[in-house]
UniProtKB/TrEMBL annotation:
Lineage, opening ranks: unclassified sequences, metagenomes, ecological metagenomes
Name of the protein this chain belongs to: Unannotated protein
Start and end residues of each Ppx/GppA phosphatase N-terminal domain: 176-466
Gene3D superfamilies, per the entry: 3.30.420.40, Exopolyphosphatase. Domain 2
InterPro entries according to UniProt: ATPase_NBD, DUF501, GppA/Ppx_hydrolase, Ppx_GppA_N
Pfam entry (one): DUF501
GO molecular function: pyrophosphatase activity
Length: 470
């Protein structure tokens, strides 16, 4: 259980929860909606309802179904449909077996809940069982959930801020925020730590102990922020570097120990949707289709889509080029020599050629660039004396600017890059490699200028968690 789960359950039920063992199922918004309970409560009372429904919105929807006579109709079908009756009895047996895992209580031996196996007495119980066990176990529970419809598509089960954490090859970032009644993001905390989790992964195939320690130290900082802001749900998304390493289990265990959640390596489709949604929500006057390009440490994502109030993805692809990967692979000298630069160009050109087989850049009427490479180059274009997100967000980069700035970064020494007042310490070594990817994007989409967004997948995760719950 997450540290805040019992508080959320108390709010849902309007009373202190009793005998909770763990969370049997979570709503799409991240809040608990079914808890697993002890077969004997702390006060000694036998308690047959192993799976207890806590979500107030689903409970309300089910109450409406009960008042409409759904239980009578279901029980009547039990008398005439032998196959259905057999499935229902098997659900009863499954319920008993799972409860016995928690301990035997003589007083309720052989008694499950909800009227099983011969009657239908409580749809809430059957729905809770169906959510906990998954589809295909409790036939009436599955029917109840289908009849209730997408009950989560309004506000989350419990109000309050949510946290999104994105752990990439170069950095780990957190956004703690809420979404107001008008659908606007209310940002409470936005932090980044350069941890270089992917350092050396390209050659070794595993996370180094030092990289893991840096990442876990950042997680401990983020745990403090989460607790201080009363976060109701947390989602931790890990991309690129964590997909194929041999010691991924150590990474997952370390994160879970510190944050109470496990890193998710999300599908390319979901990553594209979240990145697109986050990038475009904070920009105005966008003409669709929009091409969003996220230049990360280990990979670069290309997403083409339309935007009104939500993301409608037309196509997307992820390529294994990123600022860290290109730097570690090729840019060894300070500054890099011509042959090293040429080697990056070969990799980047090949990756863009491959990407365009899936994503048709020519369809784009707006191009949006996100992540640290793009925002840092924008700060350089405006000659900022410090990094100012509010100034950078919504700015534009022309193809000519990107060409000039990339060449300047490639010709600079590390000390010269470090002296730039807007340059984050963690980007000093990798910014030139990232700029070469940005330069190729500008060449491929010219004469369209690149709109710069400070918002990205973190914001997309928060919108999904806090607004739609999906």
């Amino acid at each position: 259980m997450l540290p805040d789960d019992l508080r959320i359950i108390r709010e849902q039920l309007g009373r202190a929860p009793r005998g909770v063992v763990d969370i049997a199922h979570r709503c799409a918004c991240g809040a608990p909606d079914v808890v697993r309970t002890e077969p004997r409560l702390p006060d000694g009372t036998p308690f047959p309802t192993s799976y207890y429904l806590t979500c107030p919105r689903l409970a309300s929807a089910i109450g409406t179904l009960e008042s409409e006579g759904v239980m009578r109709e279901m029980e009547a079908r039990l008398q005439t449909d032998p196959a259905l009756a057999l499935q229902y009895r098997q659900a009863h047996e499954h319920y008993l077996a799972k409860r016995e895992e928690l301990g035997h209580v003589d007083e309720i031996a052989g008694i499950s809940a909800g009227g099983m196996p011969d009657r239908v007495k409580c749809l809430h119980v059957l729905a809770g069982h169906a959510l906990a066990a998954g589809p295909g176990v409790n036939p009436f529970g599955d029917e109840v959930l289908a009849l209730a419809g997408p009950y989560w598509l309004r506000n989350p089960c419990a109000g309050g801020p949510v946290a999104a954490i994105d752990c990439g090859t170069n950095s780990i970032r957190i956004l703690i925020a809420d979404v107001d009644a008008d659908g606007a993001l209310v940002e409470l905390v936005r932090e980044m730590r350069i941890v270089r989790l992917g350092e050396g992964v390209d050659s070794t195939g595993e996370f180094s102990p030092a990289a893991l320690n840096r990442t876990f130290a950042a997680c401990e900082e983020y745990r403090t922020l989460i607790d201080a802001h009363g976060v109701t749900s947390v989602r931790f998304v890990a991309t690129s570097a964590s997909r194929d390493v041999t010691n991924r289990a150590a990474f997952v265990e370390g994160v879970h120990q510190r944050l109470g959640v496990s890193p998710e390596v999300i599908t390319g489709k979901e990553e594209a949707e979240l990145s697109f949604l986050g990038a475009v929500r904070g920009l105005t006057n966008l003409e669709s289709p929009v091409l969003v390009v996220d230049i990360g440490g280990g990979s670069t994502e290309f997403v083409l889509g339309d935007f009104t109030t939500d993301a409608h993805i037309k196509s997307s692809v992820s390529m294994n080029i990123g600022c860290v990967r290109m730097t570690e692979r090729h840019l060894a000298d300070d500054p890099p020599n011509k042959s090293q630069i040429a080697a990056v160009e070969v990799d980047v050109t090949g990756a863009f050629n491959e990407a365009q087989r899936t994503v048709d850049f020519s369809q784009a009427k707006t191009v949006v660039g996100v992540a640290g490479t793009v925002t840092t180059v924008s700060a350089m274009a405006m000659d900022l004396q410090r990094y100012e997100p509010e100034v950078i967000h919504g700015s534009t980069l022309t193809s000519a600017q990107v060409e000039d700035l990339t060449q300047r970064l490639l010709s600079m020494t590390r000390a010269e890059r470090a002296a730039l007042p807007f340059m984050h310490e963690g980007r000093i070594d990798v910014i030139a490699g990232g700029a070469m990817i940005l330069r190729e994007l500008a060449r491929r989409t010219s004469p369209i200028s690149i709109r710069v967004s400070e918002y990205d997948i973190l914001d997309g995760i928060v919108y999904r968690l806090a607004q739609t719950g999906s």
